[in-house]
Amino acid sequence: MxxxxxxxxxxxxxxxxxxxxxTLEKPKPLQEIGGRTMLxxxxxxxxxxxxxxxVVNTFYLADQIENHLRRRTDITVHISREDALLDxxxxxxxxxxxxxxxxxxxxxADLPWLDGPTPSLSRMETVWDAxxxxxxxxxxxxxxxxxxxxxxxxxxxxDGRVWRQASPLPRPFVWISAQILTPKLFxxxxxxxxxxxxxxxxxxxHQKLYGLxxxxxxxxxxxxEDWVKANALLASGQGWG
Length: 241
Known about the structure:
Elements: E1 7-11, E2 32-33, E3 36-37, H1 38-48, E4 53-58, H2 62-69, E5 76-81, H3 87-95, E6 104-108, E7 113-114, H4 120-127, E8 135-141, E9 155-156, E10 162-163, E11 173-181, H5 196-205, E12 209-213, E13 217-218, H6 224-236
Helix pairs in contact: 3-5
């Protein structure tokens, strides 16, 4: 029996400003890494663990992304088009009816990772505990994560509990795109546009923000230079380790 909803979300509405000029005519989720779009990398991982439906939010160059998604026949795609950019948290809030009150996977469409022996999404679902957790984040040691600064995002206890408020820099873990969220985290947020950071802050306040260390590699493709390096490493066979 699934511990999370059969419907997941992929965030694909961002402007990709740091990737300009590459993103002036093609949105960042449709830029290719290793011969496949970053959006398809995210969808492939959901399909691999048996997710049947996905909500994809769109805004910038939305027609291109929506036309691309029509080619997918292995997963049912629901489009959540935004008239104004709602940011990461607001985009999820708009799509909440699709999840029917159940915990759900939420992935970014612009941060590819390569799995280790066991898919990280499967590992996340295995450790997910709805009684103990309000959010579970896929984390990577800052020093091993390519394309990130040395600041880091979070600290993590041995039991997986994560925090960052009033904590020193640098922090030893960065978040790399995937998370499991509970809809109740959004109940008390009346605003429409807001970041997922506000959701994480709530979960941390409740001591219900948890993380799982990724057992593969990743590359934060934030700039055109990152895009060149990420593809070159894959093409060489060296990978991102």
